[in-house]
Amino acid sequence: MAYLGHRLGASRSFLPGVSTVRLLSTFGMDDMGISVSRSSLERLNFDNVALKKLPLDPSEDPGVRQVKGACFSRVKPQPLTKPRFVAVSYKALELLGLVGDEVINDPLGPEYLSGSKIMPGSEPAAHCYCGHQFGQFAGQLGDGAACYLGEVKVPPDQDPELLRENPSSRWEIQVKGAGLTPYSRQADGRKVLRSSIREFLCSEAMFFLGIPTTRAGSVVTSDSSVVRDVYYSGHPRHEKCSVVLRIAPTFLRFGSFEIFKSPDEYTGRRGPSCGLDEIRGQMIDYVIEMFYPEIQQNFPDRMERNVAFFREVMVRTARLVAQWQCVGFCHGVLNTDNMSILGLTLDYGPYGFMDRFDPDFICSASDNSGRYSYQAQPDICRWNLVKLAEALAPELPPDRAEAVLDEYLALYNGFYLQNMRNKLGLLKKEEPEDEILMSDLLQTMHSTGADFTNTFRCLSQITCPIEGEGEEEEEHVKKATALLLKQCATLEELKAANKPTMDPRELAMLLSMAQSNPALFQMISDRVTLARQLDKLRKLKELMEISQEALKSKQAEDWRGWIVRYRKRLALEMEGQSDAQAVQEERLRVMEGTNPRVILRNYIAQNAIEAAENGDFSEVQRVLKVLEKPYCSQPGLEFPAWVGGSGEAANQGERDEGEEQQQAMASSSTPRNPVSYDSKPPAWAGELQQAGSQRRTGN
Questions:
Q1: Catalytic hit among 106, 143, 337, 678
Q2: Residue 31 catalytic?
Q3: Strands (DSSP E) along 111-145, which ranges?
Q4: At what angle do helices 602-613 and 193-208 cross, to 10 degrees?
Q5: Helix (H, G, I), strand (E, B) or coil at 122
Q6: 350-380: burial string, b at 16+ Cβ within 10 Å, e else
Q7: Which 8-state DSSP code applies to residue 360?
Q8: pTM of the predicted model over 0.85
Q9: 365-393 pLDDT, tens per residue?
C-alpha cells in the first residue's frame, strides 16, 4: 500500500478559486442556495444518545476537577500541528460507512480524526468513571486523554455481520490523545507515536483473531511534541503527539458505576457522585435498553432484569478471558476501569502476547507482585465482577449477585476447555483425561521453554495413528518430537528467563525479614513475590549445572512422552468413524482456524514503531495487513518491508517528509537478522522484552 501521507496532496476545491474550507466558513453549508458537496467524514450521521440520556456536567471549565452528578463533561480537543495519517484500518472504518481511500485522500481527514477539527454533529466530551487499581479504590479517574466525539448511526446498508454484539445501531467514536480533560490529573492528555501504534495494531489484531474488542480506525501523528522519559532513566526526550481513533458500541466500563461508591474502608476515597443513587438507576437503564435489549424485553420485573444483565456481563467476561488465555494474551492492567461493560477487550496499555510459555508472564513494569500475570487473569476478572456487583447495589441485590458469581468458575472452565479441545483437534469425544493431557502440554511447554503460539500451530502436523501402522509409529513420534524441539528455548534463553529480577542482597534481606519481622515484611513485599524469585533462583542454579546437549536431550524426552499420549488420544477420535479422511480433514481445518500463525509479538510491534519514529510508516500498514489474516499463510508478506535493505524502507518514497527532526532523535536500531512474522522470535527479541518491561508503554 502506498504511503498514506503522500496521498493527501492538494486541497480539494469545488468552485474555481474558492477552497471548500473557506466556502464553509464564509457561507455555511447551504447558505444562499449554494449546494456544497461534503466529504464522507462531514456526512457522518451523529446521534449522541449517551449525552441525551445520561447526566452532563454543567460546567465547561477546562481545568482538572472533581465532577459530581455527571457521567460526561464537555471538552475542547486541543489541535495538533500538521496532523497526518500514519495508518488507517479500512475494515474498522467500514463500521462507520467510510471508505478508507476516501478518508486518506480527504485533506481534512487527519484533522477530523485527531480531534483537531470537529466534524458536523460531533459533541466532544470526556467520560467520568472511577476504578480499583491494583486492588485499591483510586477514586475519580475518567477519560484523562480520551475524548468522546459522538455516536455515529449505522449506515442503512451495513453488513448485518458487523452488528453482532451491537444492537444499539450506533458506533461510539473516540480520539485518544487529544489533550486535557477534567480527568487528566497530573498528565497532559497526550499520547505518543509508540503507544498509539501499539493500541492501533492490537485492537485490530484481536478482532481478526476473533476476540471481542474495541476497534481502531486510524493513527494520526503530528509536529506537536511532548517530553517523555521512556525508561525512567533521567534522560527524557521529545516525542511526537499522536492520536488513535477508537470505535466501539460504548466505552462504558465497570468503573463507570463506581462513581457512586461510598467512602472506601481502606483508602477513604469516595466516588464523586456518592449518594446520587438515581443516576445509578439511570445508567443501568441506559446500558440495558441500548446494549442488552433482549434482557429489557424479556424481564419486566426490574430486579430480575438487573440480575439477568449482571449474569450476561459475567458470561461475556468469562468467555473473553478464556479466549485471552488460549492465545497467550496478557492485558497487563486489569483494573476495574479497564473492564468493558460489554465484555470487550478495552484499553491497550502494557499488554503482551507470550512468546515462550510462562504462566507467571507479566507485561507491566508496574506489576511487581504479579497481580495481573497471565495465570492470574481469570481470577482477577472474577474479582472485578465482585466490585461491579458492589457498585450496582442496591439495584442488584448482593445475595443474587453472589449466586451469579458462583457460576463464574464453571463457565470459564467450560469456555476454556472447549477452546483448548479445538486447539488440540479433539472434536469427536470428550474424555476424562483430556484436562490432564492439556495441563501436561502446558507443563511441558513451560519446562522446555517452548513458544506458545508456534507449538500449538505445530500440533496439527502431528499425524493421527492409523490401524496397523506398526514400526512406523516410532518414526512418526520421532518426526513430531523434532518438530516441537525447534520451538524450544536454548540453554542461554532459559538462563536469561530465569534470572531473578530482584538484587541478591535485597532477596536475602527480605528472606531474613520474613522470618524476623513478618509485619514489616508484609508492608514492603509479599510471600508470592518472594516465592517467585526463589523459584527462579532454583531453576537458574539447575540450568548452570547442565549443558546445551543435555538440555536438548531432556527436552526431547519430555516431548516424546507427551506426543505418545497425544497420538493415543487422537486414535480415540477415530473410533466408530466410517470416514477417517473426513475426520482428519475436519481436525486440520479446526486446528488451523483456531491456532494463529501470526500474533502481534512485541518485537513485530517494535519494528513498526522504530520505522515510524524514523519517518517510515509503511511497516505499520504492512503489519496490519498481516494481522488481518492471522490464521493464513500470506505469500509476499512473510517478512518486514525493510528486509533486503540494511534496515531501510524497501520503498524510499514511503517516508514522511515532515519527520526529519524525529528521525534525528530516534535511536537507530542495530542490524538484526530478519525472521518471518510467523517464526519463533529471534534472540534479539528477548532484549526488547527486557527493555519493554522498563519502558512506558501507555503514554
A1: 337
A2: no
A3: 125-127, 130-133, 136-140
A4: 140
A5: coil
A6: bbbbbbbbbeebbbbbbbebbbbbbebbbeb
A7: T
A8: yes
A9: 888 888 999 999 999 999 999 999 999 99
